[in-house]
Structures are given as structure tokens and as C-alpha cells.
Amino acid sequence: MTESSPPRGGSAASKRKDARRNQQTLLDAAAAVFVTSGVDAPVREIAAKAGVGLGTFYRHFPTRADLVIAVYRHQVDTCAEAGPALLANGPTPFAALERWVDHFVDFLVTKHGLAAAMQADGSGFDALHAYFIDRLVPVCTQLLDAAVAAGEIRPDLDAYHLMRGIGNLCIGTDSDPRYDARPLVVLLLAGLRRPHRT
Amino acid sequence: MTESSPPRGGSAASKRKDARRNQQTLLDAAAAVFVTSGVDAPVREIAAKAGVGLGTFYRHFPTRADLVIAVYRHQVDTCAEAGPALLANGPTPFAALERWVDHFVDFLVTKHGLAAAMQADGSGFDALHAYFIDRLVPVCTQLLDAAVAAGEIRPDLDAYHLMRGIGNLCIGTDSDPRYDARPLVVLLLAGLRRPHRT
DNA sequence: TGCAAAGCGGAACAGCGTTCCGTATCGTAT
DNA sequence: ATACGATACGGAACGCTGTTCCGCTTTGCA
């Protein structure tokens, strides 16, 4: 799982100048549109905002998921890298896990429709799901294992299910103002705690 | 029999014979298609299976949500009615809540895509979401209150959030075989438990 | 400057939910 | 039995998606 699947072969400078420029324009436009219209924004809207045609869009990002991944790759990587750091600095592994999960929820909740898109079936977003899982499950596993080793939580749950559950809980936070995923995520983690030893 | 003055009052038998027949055919076809293709099955597929045109479909069910509600109304009502019964027969309110939630999860998990459709935004499924909430939140509130009164759980969470969280956790159970929502739901409820008093 | 090769734009295709209206059927009054 | 108005039907058509395809333009090198 070293390399997932970048849109094009070499990422750096193996293309024509205008091609690279358009790709960047597209990324910027997508980032802007995602904020206002969510990640489900029509491809045409993004292409229009970038001032390019549909052909250009699809050449750079064969599937919508590739675009979303490209837009958020940096933030996902940052989130992944925060795991070990929190583990090193946190008072306890469980506290580190709590904070890391909080970061993750923050990320999901601020990206309209991202959580939903990640779990959506057959919408061509499978690659997005896979990317998140590949990148974050190992980190989550590390945090979970440490907390288990410290005797803070039960070993019942694997990282995949935890990530998946958190992601699911974050669905719809943007469309329904009265729904707040955070308390539920807290509860989920609380349910994981090992009953205090006697 | 006993229906001789149609122009008045009743909602049921005031239509033409073929209309009622087609409505039932549509319901049967939908129920069958939902099992195989999920609740997101194309309207055309359902209409074709029922052997009727699209116009007929939309006259009977102005929106897709109306169809889904009509198909599952009975089961939702059954679920709602099970609440008080479980509360009366269960050893403790929390046990009743657990069982009731289990029934609810069973229901959601066996209907492909139902959980996802319920939370889907702007897909015309809002009415579906509203129906579930209207029907089940009161029951859940009753169970929750009883458990709180019995000192079994913390009063942190309102029924809407719990229902919503459970519904969200059930999303994607059908499309991903390795994902199982049940343990997560159990964990969520476990997180609700009041720490044992001294 | 010339000229492949690489890239671009947008028309076109397929599939969706939904609307609309000419036509067929039903129920009844004659 | 027939005629006729109300009711319901079927499916073409519209608008919106994602995606593909191909004639034309731009680029970068000789």
C-alpha cells in the first residue's frame, strides 16, 4: 500500500506547462466550491469555476474521488501524522486517542458531505473511502493498541470499525443544524473504556 | 360492503377500482425490488416490475419517500409499539432499551440502503427521515427516560441524537461485508451507562 | 519557422427523478 | 345497452447528473 493511485504517473514536472497550471486551477476551484457547495458539487460547476472544459477535468482527475483525494490529501496526511505525536506527548494513550479522534471529527465535520461521500456506495467514491482507510487505520490501530496495552480500554474493537463508526456518526452534521456528532463520538469512546479495576 | 357513500370522509376506498389495484401492485413490486436492489432502486424499475407507467407511479406516490414510507410503515409501527411492551416486560429499563435498539438495528440492516436513504440530504428522502423521527423518537424518549429514572444511564443524550447516531452507524452494513454496525451500537449504549455508584 | 505530440473544449451519450398531456378505462345516468 | 363525464393511465419529454469522445488548439522542440 505504498502508493495508492495518483491521477497521473509522475506527479512533479513530467507534463506540459499549461496542463500543470490547469490541474492547479482545478484544485483551487474545487477547494473553493467544496466549501460552498460540498464535495458533491457537480463536476460542471467545478470546471466552470476553474474556467476549463469537462475534458480537461476528467483528464486530470479520472474520477471524482481522485479530485477529492487530491484536495484533501494534505490534511489527511497531517491527521495521520498527528497520531504518533499525540501518543508521544499525551498524558495517556486514551487521552491521545481522544484528541486524535477529535481532530478527525473536526476535519470531517467542516467538509460538507465528505463523511457521507466516504461511505456512499457505487457513486465512484470508493477510492476515497479506500484512501482514508489506508491512511488512517494504521494510525488508529497504533493508538488503540497503546490504550489497550495501558489497560485503559477493552480490546473489543478494531481500528477499522472505530474509524468507520466515527465517520458514519459524522454524516449529516452539515445538513441538520440540530444534530451534533461530537457527543455521540465521545460516547462511543466512553463505551470502549475498560471498567475500572478493583 | 358497508361502503356505499364514497364522496364522504374516508381516505381508503374513495378511488376507482383499477387505481387501488395499481397502488397495491406498486407496493408489492416495490417491496420485492427493495429486497434485491435496495431502496434506491430506480423508479422505472419499480414501475416496470409492477407493469405500470411512470405517470401511474407518481400519481400514487408523489415522491419516492412516500413509497418507502408506505412499504415500511407497518414495520415501523410495529417497532414503535414494541417499545412500551419491552419496557413493561423487561427486567430493567436499560435492558428494554437494548432490546428495542436491537430490533431497530435489525430492521435497518435488513433493508438495503434504508439507513443511508434516511440521512441522505436533498434526495427527496426528507419525508422518510421525518417519518422515522416522528414515529420512533417518542418511543425512544420513553425508554431513555425510564432508564434515566432507574439510574442506569446518564441523562446526557436526547432520543433524537441516539436514534440518529444508531441510524448513522447502520449505514453501509449491506455494501461492506466486513463492516458490522452492531458492536458499535452496543458500544454507544455502553457509553451511556452511568458509572457504578459507590 | 515548422510540426508532431500533448492538451483542450464542449457536444454527445447514458441514466436518473419528475412533469405533462393525449388517450383509454371506469362508473353511472339514461 | 349506450353514452358520456370523471378518473386514471402510459410514456414521451424535460432538466439534471457523471462520463466519454473527437476535432481543434496550444506547446515545446528541432
Automatic annotation (TrEMBL), chains A, B:
<keyword id="KW-0238">DNA-binding</keyword>
<feature type="domain" description="HTH tetR-type">
    <location>
        <begin position="20"/>
        <end position="79"/>
    </location>
</feature>
<keyword id="KW-0805">Transcription regulation</keyword>
<dbReference type="InterPro" id="IPR001647">
    <property type="entry name" value="HTH_TetR"/>
</dbReference>
<keyword id="KW-0804">Transcription</keyword>
<protein>
    <submittedName>
        <fullName>TetR/AcrR family transcriptional regulator</fullName>
    </submittedName>
</protein>
<dbReference type="InterPro" id="IPR049445">
    <property type="entry name" value="TetR_SbtR-like_C"/>
</dbReference>
<feature type="region of interest" description="Disordered">
    <location>
        <begin position="1"/>
        <end position="21"/>
    </location>
</feature>
<dbReference type="InterPro" id="IPR036271">
    <property type="entry name" value="Tet_transcr_reg_TetR-rel_C_sf"/>
</dbReference>
<dbReference type="InterPro" id="IPR009057">
    <property type="entry name" value="Homeodomain-like_sf"/>
</dbReference>
<dbReference type="Pfam" id="PF00440">
    <property type="entry name" value="TetR_N"/>
</dbReference>
<dbReference type="GO" id="GO:0000976">
    <property type="term" value="F:transcription cis-regulatory region binding"/>
</dbReference>
<dbReference type="InterPro" id="IPR050109">
    <property type="entry name" value="HTH-type_TetR-like_transc_reg"/>
</dbReference>
<dbReference type="GO" id="GO:0003700">
    <property type="term" value="F:DNA-binding transcription factor activity"/>
</dbReference>
<feature type="DNA-binding region" description="H-T-H motif">
    <location>
        <begin position="42"/>
        <end position="61"/>
    </location>
</feature>
<dbReference type="Pfam" id="PF21597">
    <property type="entry name" value="TetR_C_43"/>
</dbReference>
